[in-house]
Amino acid sequence: MTVTDPRPASVDVLIVGAGISGIGAAYYLQREHPQRSYAVLEAREASGGTWDLFRYPGVRSDSDLHTFGYAFRPWRDGPAIAGGDRILRYLRETAAEYGIDRRIQFRSKVLGASWSSADARWSVEVEDTGTGARRVVSCNWIFCAGGYFRYDEGFIPRFEGQERFRGQLVHPQHWPRDLAYDGKRVLVIGSGATAVTLVPALAGAAAHVTMLQRTPSYVVAVPAADRLARLLIRVFGEQRGDRLARRKNIVRQQAFYRLSRRYPKAVRRIIRRLNARLLPSGYPVDEHFNPPYDPWDQRVCAVPDGDLFRAIRRGTASVVTDRIASFTATGVLLASGRTLDADVVVTATGLNLQAMGGMALTVDGRPVHLADAIAYKGMMLSGVPNFAYAIGYTNASWTLKIGLLCEHFCRLLARMDARGDDIAHPVPADPAMPTRPFLDFGAGYVRRVIDRLPRQGDRAPWLTSLNYTGDVKLLRHLPVEDPELHLDRSTRAGPRPS
């Protein structure tokens, strides 16, 4: 008996990734282009992306959910800074409400894709991560919504002598469900968003939690509950109140970022003063919470209701700024000669970036080298037709950018339909245009792979913008057509109607 694969072998748009970006892309696509067929491929066995993967204690957003949530489905589930379980529930409820969950194909990892200009089609090689079986899906467009880090492994630097450690060594990206840390000494290595989230979450049950950092990060206490947003909703009703709360928080995010970049010394002083008020009297603020770089050279860490500072005040957590010389059987030896004993060591040392989900691309038989490509409007690549991707903001809520990119993608499809075109590919007017790194961000996880990422130009539309206001103008209001975006009709489609 022949078993027929029920999954479609050909669709108009193939969305890669069933996380917050992929679910958003599917919503906008089916709303604006209901006649187009699409499928969502997800390499893992569940939807939710980051919010299904990360299971470490205290995992939460570091942006408010009024802006991190979708504009088309306002966040109404409790605090504005929410835990990962609430966010995951929100994403899955969204997918179910709009029927997107029925379009998701799980355990479907994209290995590579080959473009044919004559056919205006991608042939996408997909592997079943459970059985290893492979199949090919044909599509006119690929929309890559898998973010920019690897889901199968986090970044763990090699520490001298770590094999001598007799305790448990854990990376947050692969947190064991049965990890027991009650009454134990826990050492968290790192100072980023994951570390400052883990420390107060573990401090409630552990004997003591120490955050060991090489370099301090900017840490800012924010209210977990948005009382003004609640007031706006109560006064103006849910629909209008939600819109006002979202606008308020967008303005606040943008104002803080711009102020930080324009007056970094003043913002540094303000953050230091606020931190000092929340820490014990006489605490060495400059040693542990005064980074050597300016605010937003790397992402500023938000701690809801100052929970990290509260744990330090209570004495259940502490911060040490030093370097690891080597691991010992019972902990670590620091460069200063000090030792830190631990039963559990958590390496909150960051992520591994992976451009475009790690898929290999070819265009008319020629391999695509991502490092040679230039980003167009932060959503397409030079030399790669009918390929869009979604990468959100690093200085504000990720989803603000995703929504604008999805809107613009749908506008582009509508314009192509009106012209009778089926191919879109950006081409720089000046092949010698100066370029710079794709992400102007000083984080270590970016610097480690910057030479393997696409680049951006020195002018619009070849900039990867971090300016929401400017992106609203470019992506939502300005015309889709651009001299450097070539729209064509394939030979398969024939001549344009006269």
UniProtKB/TrEMBL annotation:
Domain of life per record: Bacteria
InterPro entries named among the record's database cross-references: FAD-binding_MO, FAD/NAD-bd_sf, Flavin_mOase-like
Keywords, comma-separated and alphabetical: FAD, Flavoprotein, Membrane, Monooxygenase, NADP, Oxidoreductase, Transmembrane, Transmembrane helix
Pfam families (alphabetical): FMO-like, NAD_binding_8
Transmembrane regions: 12-29, 186-207
Gene Ontology molecular function: any one: N,N-dimethylaniline monooxygenase activity
Cofactor(s) listed: FAD
PANTHER family: MONOOXYGENASE, PUTATIVE (AFU_ORTHOLOGUE AFUA_8G02570)-RELATED (PTHR43872)
Family affiliation: Belongs to the FAD-binding monooxygenase family.
Identification of the protein by name: Predicted flavoprotein CzcO associated with the cation diffusion facilitator CzcD
Organism expressing this protein natively: Actinacidiphila yanglinensis
